[in-house]
Design a protein that fits this description.
Layout: H1 2-12, H2 16-34, E1 38-49, E2 61-62, E3 64-77, E4 82-87, E5 95-98, H3 113-126, E6 133-138, H4 153-169, H5 175-187, H6 196-203, E7 208-213, E8 223-228, E9 233-239, H7 247-266, H8 283-287, E10 294-295, H9 296-301, E11 317-318, H10 320-343, H11 346-362, H12 369-379, E12 386-390, E13 397-403, H13 407-422, E14 427-430, E15 438-444
Parallel strand pairs: 4-6
Antiparallel strand pairs: 1-3, 1-15, 2-7, 3-6, 4-5, 7-8, 9-13, 9-14, 10-11, 12-13
The structure holds 2-acetamido-2-deoxy-1-O-phosphono-alpha-D-galactopyranose.
C-alpha cells in the first residue's frame, strides 16, 4: 500500500491522501464482490475545454485540459470471454455481456454500452475476441468525474474500459489509434461527437493543456502540442448543477447543421469535406450561401443528404448559417488563444474566452440562463481574465481564469451570486491539470 501511495502522489500531487482512502474503498468493494486475488487498477480523467467548442467533429482545433477527477476501473481478467461490471454508485446496477465483434447494444442510456463499444471495436481491430474481465467502476463525487456536466464522464469511462481491454489483450496502443478507437466506441452509443475527449483523456500531461488539430494527416496522425497553463492563474470550474436530459438529440442536430453547411458549400467548391476547409475563406461572402434555417426534410428535397445521424427528426430546424459561423470564428479563436498563451498575454486569452462564450450562446445556442449567470458573476471579480461555458453545453460547467490571489473571493462571490439569481448551488473547484489514462497499479486484495 505504501507503494500505491507513491504512485498516487505522482498522479494527484497533494491530493494523494484522500485518493488513497478512495482507492482503499474501491479495492475492498472489489474483494467483497469478486473474491480475493490480484486486481488491476486503471484510471481515465475527465476534462474541461479551455476553448474550441464543437469544432472537433468539424476537423477543427481544440484546447482541452484534463481534470484530476477521474474514473477508476478495477479489473481482473476472466477466461470465458464475458465481462461483468459493477459500480460503487448504486444507481448503476450490475451488468454483463459476452465479447464478440458484434456485441448487441443495451438500451440507450445503459452504462454497459461504454464497455460494449470498446470491447467490440478492439476485437474488430485485433481480429480476435479480447479477454473479458470482472470490473468495478469508481467515479463517485468528490473524486470522480461529474456526470452529464460537460466534463466528459462518458469518454473517461469509455477510455478506462478501452485501456483495460487493451492491457489484457497485450495491445500496446499509440495515442491517435487508441483515441480513434475510443471515439468509434462512443459512436456505438449514438452520439456523433469528435475526438477531443478521448485524446485528452489518453494523452494529458500534468499542468498542461493539449492543443489538438482534429484533422488527421495522410497517415491518420494528428498534430498535437502540450501547452503550459499560465503561471499566476488558476483555472476554476463552476458546475451549474444543471443537467440536460435530451443532449444527444440536440447535439446531433448541431452536427446536422454543420454537415448541411458543408453539403451546401460543396456545390460550388467540391473539395470541401468539413467546415475546416473554409478556415481561410472570407466568411462574410460564404455565409450568404447558407440558409438561416432549414429542415432536414427540405434539404432532402433539394438533394442534400446528411449521412448517418440518429435522433434528428425531419422537421428539426437547422440553423445552418449561425452554426457554421460559430465553427469558423471558434477555430480562429483557438489559434489566437495559443498565440496569446505563447506570448503570455493573459488578458487577450480572457477576451477570447469571453468571445467564445458569446458565440456559443448566440450562434451555436448551447448556453442556458444558469451558465450565463455564472459567466457574468465570474467576470465581476477584478483580475479575472475571462469565463465561458465548457463542453457540449445545455447545462454543465463554466470555466474561468482567476488570478491566484483571488480564488477565495471569487468562489465566495460566484457561489452567492449564483444561488441568489437561480436558487441553485454551484460546485466550484480548481482544475488541477492531471496526467492521462493508464494502468495505475496491480494490487492484491
Ligand atoms: P461533452 O461535453 O463531454 O459532452 C462533447 C463531445 C466532444 C465535443 C464537445 C463540444 C463526445 C463524446 N464528446 O463533449 O467531442 O464535440 O461535446 O466541443 O461526443
Amino acid at each position: 500500500m505504501g507503494q500505491l501511495l507513491g504512485v498516487l502522489a505522482e498522479i494527484y500531487g497533494g491530493g494523494a491522501g484522500g485518493q488513497m482512502a478512495r482507492y482503499r474503498v474501491a479495492l475492498d468493494g472489489f474483494r467483497v464482490r469478486y473474491g480475493p486475488g490480484p486486481v488491476h487498477i486503471f484510471r481515465a480523467p475527465g476534462r474541461v475545454n479551455l476553448i474550441g467548442e464543437h469544432t472537433d467533429y468539424n476537423h477543427g482545433y481544440v484546447l482541452p485540459v484534463a481534470l484530476d477527477r477521474d474514473v477508476l476501473l478495477l479489473a481482473r481478467p476472466r477466461a470465458d470471454g464475458e465481462v461483468w461490471l459493477a459500480n460503487v454508485e448504486s444507481d448503476f446496477t450490475p451488468r454483463g455481456f459476452a465479447v464478440s465483434d458484434a456485441i448487441p447494444a443495451a438500451p440507450a442510456g445503459d452504462w454497459s454500452n461504454y464497455a460494449r463499444g470498446p470491447a467490440q471495436e478492439l476485437t474488430r481491430l485485433l481480429g480476435t475476441p479480447v479477454a473479458g474481465f470482472d470490473g468495478l467502476v469508481s467515479s463517485a463525487p468528490p473524486y470522480g468525474v461529474p456526470r452529464g456536466a460537460g466534463v466528459s464522464s462518458s469518454s473517461a469511462l469509455t477510455v478506462a474500459m478501452a485501456v483495460a481491454f487493451a492491457h489484457f489483450a497485450g495491445w500496446r496502443w499509440q495515442g491517435a489509434e487508441m483515441a480513434r478507437l475510443c471515439s468509434d466506441a462512443e459512436w456505438y452509443v449514438g452520439t456523433r461527437g469528435g475526438i477531443m475527449d478521448q485524446f485528452i483523456a489518453l494523452l494529458a500531461e500534468r499542468g498542461h493543456a493539449l492543443f489538438l488539430d482534429c484533422r488527421p494527416d495522410a497517415d491518420g496522425d494528428f498534430r498535437t502540442r502540450s501547452i503550459p497553463l499560465p503561471a499566476g492563474y488558476r483555472l476554476l470550474v463552476m458546475d451549474s448543477g444543471v443537467r440536460h436530459s435530451n443532449t444527444r438529440n440536440k447535439f446531433n442536430q448541431r452536427v446536422a447543421a454543420c454537415r448541411a453547411g458543408v453539403a451546401l458549400l460543396r456545390r460550388e467548391r467540391p473539395g470541401i469535406t468539413h467546415l475546416r476547409d473554409v478556415e481561410n475563406a472570407d466568411w462574410s461572402a460564404l455565409e450568404e450561401q447558407l440558409p438561416e434555417e432549414v429542415s432536414v426534410a427540405s434539404l432532402r428535397g433539394q438533394g442534400v443528404a446528411l449521412g448517418d445521424l440518429p435522433n434528428v427528426p425531419d422537421d428539426a430546424p437547422l440553423r445552418v448559417r449561425a452554426c457554421c459561423r460559430h465553427v469558423w470564428t471558434e477555430n480562429r479563436r483557438v489559434l489566437a488563444t495559443i498565440d496569446a498563451l505563447d506570448r503570455g498575454d493573459i488578458p487577450r486569452v480572457g477576451q477570447l474566452l469571453n468571445e467564445a462564450h458569446t458565440s456559443a450562446r448566440d450562434d451555436y445556442r448551447i448556453s442556458t440562463p444558469e451558465l450565463d449567470v455564472l459567466t457574468g458573476a465570474a467576470r465581476q471579480i477584478d483580475g479575472v481574465a475571462g469565463a465561458r461555458l465548457t463542453g457540449a453545453g445545455w447545462g454543465g460547467c463554466v470555466i474561468a481564469l482567476v488570478p491566484d490571489g483571488q480564488v477565495e473571493e471569487f468562489s465566495t462571490h460566484v457561489g452567492r451570486f449564483y444561488t441568489r439569481a437561480t436558487g441553485r448551488q454551484a460546485t466550484i473547484f480548481p482544475c488541477q491539470a492531471g496526467p492521462g489514462a493508464g494502468l495505475v497499479a496491480v494490487a492484491e486484495v
